[in-house]
Automatic annotation (TrEMBL):
GO biological process: one example: cell-matrix adhesion
Gene name in the database record: Msln_0
Any Pfam family hit: Mesothelin
Example of a GO cellular component annotation carried by this entry: cell surface
Compartments where located: Membrane
Lineage: Eukaryota, Metazoa, Chordata, Craniata, Vertebrata
Location, primary (coarse class): membrane
Organism: Fregata magnificens (Magnificent frigatebird)
Keywords: Cell adhesion, Glycoprotein, Membrane, Signal
Name this polypeptide is given: MSLN protein
Family: Belongs to the mesothelin family.
Amino acid sequence: SPSDYAATGGCRQYSANIEKANLDVLQRESSQRKHLLSEALVCLKIPGTEVSEENAEILGHLVCDLGGEYIRSSGGNLLKQLSQCESFLPDQEEAIRSVISSGNTTFGPPGAWSAFTLNELDGLIPVFDHSILQKIPK
């Protein structure tokens, strides 16, 4: 629980310890993983579904467990962290495509991307559909 870390940095320390742990030993969407995420969201005082880029960094790999509503509400704030996830649920994939297609991210619309941008979003490329891929400059 984050309260266990109150004397040593609270939410940051809690998330840092989770980051070091192998979350994959817990099954995706298990109650334990949901609890870890829920505790972190409460600790960071995230009231709704919008997560700032700073909080996304603090959450680390827990970002991979955020649902599609968080991804949509947070716009591009989660993309960098999400690109490090091993896999996505269909709802997450749809939300990622929606955010990318909107072009309202720090990366801009796919038509303005460079090789550097693709490198930054490397882990998300398998989620891109044809409509996104065709807009990326050769």
